[in-house]
Specification:
mainly alpha, two-stranded antiparallel ribbon, 3 helices, 2 strands
Length: about 110
Amino acid sequence: MTGSQPNIYWKLCWKFVSPTLVTVILVASLVKQCLSPAEYSAYEGCDPLNPTSSHLWTRDVPFSWWAQIVGAVMVMLPVVPMPILAIWHLVSKRFLERVSEDNCVA
């Protein structure tokens, strides 16, 4: 686009650092989601004898299983194509190299 090659720093980041970080973040978020389900704060009411008390009348309630699945799908949907396409690219590249080697008969 600019007529010059990008610096080696950017090439390394685009080729190795960024995919590694995205994969680590993806796996870490999956593990966190499985180990501790998402919760929301539910209102339980207030003390009728002391409505101005500073006590919090809420409790943490986990989301239902289907809501957690919907949330996980919404989070993963934009990220999952990246590793799938990377694997597809590697497999197709190796397949094309084998086909071209097989066609070169000496």
